[in-house]
Amino acid sequence: MTKQEREALAAVLEAIAAAKGEEPVVLDLTGLTTMTDYFVLAHGTNTRQVQSMAKRVEENVRELCGLKPHHVEGLGPAQWVLMDYGFFIVHLFIEEKRGYYGLERIWMDAKHVKMS
Which CATH number fits domain 3-112: 3.40.630.30, 3.40.50.10310, 3.30.460.10, 3.40.718.10? Predict the structure, then answer.
């Protein structure tokens, strides 16, 4: 993992924590797909919290790393917000949708990245 990648992922996790997001996970997808290198997953208890997490992620990553998402979808309904930054994609769910879509199960071969 490069320094830029580590800093960006740390900025995402910091924003999720500030918005009281639950169970954040970073999955290393290198070698498993060409779409991205990392997934960051977290959930909130309601749509307002998910929207708040997404806003904080966007602001924090822009301020600390100078990066903007290439694409954001799902912000209005906020059941599952996807934020595509290229080398990483952030998935923010309400709790029920995270369990339903099961990205951790789908990508169970991905390594869990420990961020300190």
Answer: 3.30.460.10
Please report which residue ranges of the chain form alpha helices under DSSP H: 3-18, 47-65, 95-101, 103-106
User: Domain-by-domain residue ranges, the chain?
Assistant: 3-112
The answer to whether 26 and 38 have CB atoms below 8 angstroms apart is yes
Q: Are 92 and 57 in contact (CB under 8 A)?
A: yes
Q: Which amino acid is at 54?
A: A
Residue type for position 94: I
pTM over 0.85: yes
Hey, how many other C-beta atoms are within 10 angstroms of the C-beta on 70? 10
Q: 40: closest CA among 87, 94, 74, 109?
A: 87
Residue 25 binned pLDDT confidence (cut-offs 50, 70, 90): very high
The pLDDT of residue 20: 97
List Cα–Cα distances, 98 to 50, 78, 104, in angstroms: 12, 12, 9
